[in-house]
């Protein structure tokens, strides 16, 4: 199994170069076709009082800005792809709702892997990708790149944050091409000290055995902790110099808070490794 169609979300000029470089590096490894996708988003339009109608001058200015940014992003993507002699195509959608637009999501469903860069919290923008829409609506795994990364890096050490859910099971098998190419794979579970349950140990052992049948030599570790799972996982990522974190994505906000200590955007804010999510 390998990734043959990689969809790179190119939301801003700042993110385009790194997203394209990662997508092309993966494409070279897997013999994949790369699709560069951009949503040409029109920002909120000022209203003219007292009629409260859109200011036509402001509307035209915003459209021109969005169009110019789209051309810049397209040129960056094409220049990089042509330089690598890669198989690629460019898609641009004009939309008022951003990356939650149905045409974009429908196109993403034909990809093996969706790739996006974590929004930089210091540079807020209406054009930033709506990661939650792709996670919850596309049905495809999403590989998130920390905004602090400036160039592709090999994925040699993988950590699977295993909690026995259907979401993490999907993410694990969606990550199979990465697992097969890694030097080490660890199934890591966090067991609350007050549960007295050993269910995660049993299911963790089962998924470890299942991966072994695919030729993947994974190890399994269960750690009891009174801390939030997010903190334990973050420490493990740092201590083990993990290149890729694999985990499930959850629609229920309480589960996000229990596992990550906050919302999806809080998770994105604290990313230190490439992260593959699926549900």
What would your notes on this structure say?
It is built from ten helices and twelve strands. α1 packs parallel to α2 (56-83). It folds into two domains: 5-145, HUPs (Rossmann fold); 157-278, HUPs (Rossmann fold). The chain has helices at residues 13-30, 56-83, 102-108, 131-137, 166-174, 176-181, 199-212, 229-239, 253-260, 264-269, and strands spanning 5-9, 33-41, 47-48, 53-54, 88-95, 113-117, 142-145, 157-161, 184-192, 218-225, 244-248, 274-278. A ten-stranded mixed β-sheet has the order 5-2-1-6-7-12-11-8-9-10, with helices on both faces. The model is unreliable at 253-266 (pLDDT under 50). With 279 residues, the chain is α/β, with parallel strands linked by helices. β6, α4 (131-137) and β7 form a beta-alpha-beta unit. Helices cover 41% and strands 24% of the residues.
Give keywords.
279 residues; alpha/beta; Rossmann fold; 2 domains; ten-stranded mixed β-sheet; two-stranded antiparallel sheet; 12 strands; 41% helix
Question: How many structural domains?
Answer: 2
* Largest sheet geometry: 10 strands, mixed
The number of helical elements comes to 10
Global shape: globular
Strand content: 15-25%
**Overall helicity:** 40-55%
Q: What is this structure, in a nutshell?
A:
The chain is α/β, with parallel strands linked by helices and 279 residues long.
Question: How does the SSE layout of this entry go?
Answer:
Blueprint: E1 5-9, H1 13-30, E2 33-41, E3 47-48, E4 53-54, H2 56-83, E5 88-95, H3 102-108, E6 113-117, H4 131-137, E7 142-145, E8 157-161, H5 166-174, H6 176-181, E9 184-192, H7 199-212, E10 218-225, H8 229-239, E11 244-248, H9 253-260, H10 264-269, E12 274-278
Parallel strand pairs: 1-2, 1-6, 2-5, 6-7, 8-9, 8-11, 9-10, 11-12
Antiparallel strand pairs: 3-4, 7-12
Helix pairs in contact: 1-2
């Amino acid at each position: 199994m390998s990734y043959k169609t990689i969809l790179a979300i190119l939301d801003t000029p700042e993110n385009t170069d790194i997203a394209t470089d990662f997508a092309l590096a993966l494409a070279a490894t897997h013999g994949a076709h790369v699709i560069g996708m951009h949503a040409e988003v029109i920002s909120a339009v000022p209203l003219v009082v007292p009629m409260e109608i859109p200011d036509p001058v402001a509307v035209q200015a915003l459209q021109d800005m969005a169009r110019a940014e789209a051309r810049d992003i397209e040129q960056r993507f094409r220049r990089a792809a042509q330089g690598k002699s890669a198989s690629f195509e460019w898609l641009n959608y004009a939309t008022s709702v951003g990356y939650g637009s149905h045409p974009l999501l429908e196109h993403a469903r034909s990809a093996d892997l969706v790739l996006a860069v974590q929004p930089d919290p210091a540079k807020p923008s209406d054009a930033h990708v709506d990661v939650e829409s792709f996670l919850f609506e596309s049905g495809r795994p999403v590989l998130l790149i920390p905004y602090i990364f400036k160039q592709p890096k090999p994925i040699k050490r993988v950590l699977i944050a295993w909690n026995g859910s259907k979401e993490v099971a999907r993410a694990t098998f969606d990550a199979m091409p990465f697992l097969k190419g890694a030097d080490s794979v660890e199934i890591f579970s966090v067991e609350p000290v007050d549960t007295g349950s050993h269910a995660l140990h049993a299911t963790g052992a089962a998924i470890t055995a299942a991966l072994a049948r695919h030729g993947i030599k994974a190890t399994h570790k269960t750690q009891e902790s009174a801390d939030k799972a997010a903190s334990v996982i973050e420490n493990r990522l740092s201590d083990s110099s993990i290149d890729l974190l694999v985990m499930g994505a959850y629609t229920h906000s309480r589960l996000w808070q229990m596992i990550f200590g906050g919302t999806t955007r809080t998770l994105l804010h604290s990313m230190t490794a490439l992260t593959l999510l699926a549900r």
